[in-house]
């Protein structure tokens, strides 16, 4: 119980401290289910890829499923394998390229007044931007009048899920506790928004978007997917797909504010590539240092800061036996900061991701998007989105974060900046907006 309280109080510090006990650390569990914390890439590789048939997401998927249903993030095999096979074509490079036009247009609109706002919570502004990008870039629809309500629904769902994931023995969902009732109302409101979206898009399903692709999926008998399954996929991308990118960009802006020399190098690359114009989809692969900055931020502050799994049968890896029905905790945050894999691991050094250099770390020592069949299906889209948004911000502004507010991680469902990142932006002169 003492260790459980330590974990609840500061989960990141607790997980970091367990490194001193080995690469696979068994800890007592309140619910009598054996729990193992995994720190070695070879064991992580086994769990996420090699021995995947023996692994499920288990209770963590059930908690997130209370909001998301059985979408790609929460479903178990074989349903997960079918869903991934059906959705993968929607993330082809051509779809990502088409969505880039929406990303650039929306970014220009959202950041237009940042220079006259004074100090503001840029994390909230980024959440607003990335919500629009999901709706317009992936669904081909506008958020419209549901914007404020969606932010409330998402915040309620994230807080509820984070709290429930941290509870050793959560209250049954059927009990009419205040938190359960609030969450049920939020899910009902989310359903209303998503089903209205589906009704409005049925007659406009020819535009090549993720949503139109889902609407055209047929099962083995030629029947379209049930509306409930489509709803679950949309909920997954709305809630899981927009907050992670917004949190990533918050951490990028914080790290650049703390490292002026890196910022200057980013600015020179952006100015050299873009000249007097805004970025385009073609620029994504012409901004290598911007992408290095994003990859290094993903190393230091991975949005998916922890991954939870469960064994369905005995797992033997690295001469260690892990019994069936064991809980497994993998923390990319902790693994990414291990000096065995990354020199000067706690320092912000984007150059370590220079593709001209040989990567010296094991494949599963760097897992910001997971691994195996559950590698994030939208990782290419997320990287393109972050690259274009960051390039647009750097092109237009300089900034500094509010140093009176202590910046620290908040390990929620995604790794947030605790209290949000507050910053002041200054228009660069001259600025040329070519839209």
UniProtKB/TrEMBL annotation:
Binding site for heme: 376
Required cofactor names: heme
Pfam families the UniProt entry points to: p450
Top-level taxon: Bacteria
Keywords: Heme, Iron, Metal-binding, Monooxygenase, Oxidoreductase
Gene Ontology MF terms: heme binding; iron ion binding; monooxygenase activity; oxidoreductase activity, acting on paired donors, with incorporation or reduction of molecular oxygen
PANTHER family linked to this entry: BIFUNCTIONAL ALBAFLAVENONE MONOOXYGENASE_TERPENE SYNTHASE (PTHR24291:SF50), CYTOCHROME P450 FAMILY 4 (PTHR24291)
Protein family: Belongs to the cytochrome P450 family.
This protein's name: Cytochrome P450
């Amino acid at each position: 119980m003492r260790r459980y309280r330590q974990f609840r109080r500061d989960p990141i510090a607790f997980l970091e401290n367990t490194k001193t006990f080995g690469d696979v650390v068994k800890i007592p569990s309140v619910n009598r289910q054996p729990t193992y914390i995994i720190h070695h890439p070879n064991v992580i590789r086994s769990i996420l890829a090699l021995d995947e048939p023996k692994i499920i997401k288990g209770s963590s998927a059930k908690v997130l499923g209370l909001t998301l249903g059985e979408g790609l993030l929460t479903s178990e095999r074989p349903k997960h394998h079918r869903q991934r096979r059906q959705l993968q074509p929607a993330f082809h490079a051509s779809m990502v390229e088409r969505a880039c036009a929406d990303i650039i247009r929306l970014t220009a609109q959202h950041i237009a007044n940042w220079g006259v706002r004074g100090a503001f919570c840029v994390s909230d502004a980024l959440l607003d931007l990335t919500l629009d990008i999901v709706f317009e870039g992936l669904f081909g629809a506008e958020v419209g009048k549901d914007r404020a309500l969606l932010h409330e629904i998402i915040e309620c769902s994230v807080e509820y899920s984070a709290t429930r994931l941290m509870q050793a023995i959560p209250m049954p969902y059927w009990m009419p506790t205040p938190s359960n009732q609030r969450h049920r109302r939020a899910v009902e409101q989310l359903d209303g928004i998503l089903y209205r979206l589906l009704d409005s898009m049925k007659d406009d399903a020819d535009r090549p978007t993720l949503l139109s692709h889902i609407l055209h999926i047929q099962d083995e008998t030629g029947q379209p997917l049930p509306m409930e399954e489509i709803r679950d996929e949309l909920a997954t991308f709305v809630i899981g797909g927009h907050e992670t990118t917004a949190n990533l960009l918050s951490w990028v802006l914080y790290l650049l504010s703390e490292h002026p020399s890196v910022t200057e190098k980013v600015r020179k690359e952006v100015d050299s590539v873009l000249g007097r114009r805004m970025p385009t989809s073609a620029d994504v692969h012409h901004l290598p240092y911007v992408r290095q900055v994003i990859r290094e931020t993903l190393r230091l502050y991975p949005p998916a800061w922890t991954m939870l799994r469960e064994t369905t049968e005995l797992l033997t890896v690295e001469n260690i036996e892990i019994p069936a029905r064991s809980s497994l905790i993998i923390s990319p945050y902790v693994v990414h900061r291990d000096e065995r894999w990354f020199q000067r691991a706690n320092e912000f050094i984007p150059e370590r991701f220079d593709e001209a250099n040989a990567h010296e770390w094991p494949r599963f020592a760097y897992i910001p998007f997971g691994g195996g069949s559950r590698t994030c299906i939208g990782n290419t889209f997320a990287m393109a989105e972050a690259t274009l948004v960051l390039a647009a911000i750097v092109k237009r502004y300089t900034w500094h974060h509010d140093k009176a507010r202590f910046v620290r991680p908040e390990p929620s469902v995604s790794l947030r900046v605790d209290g949000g990142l507050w910053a002041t932006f200054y228009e660069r002169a001259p600025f040329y907006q070519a839209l």
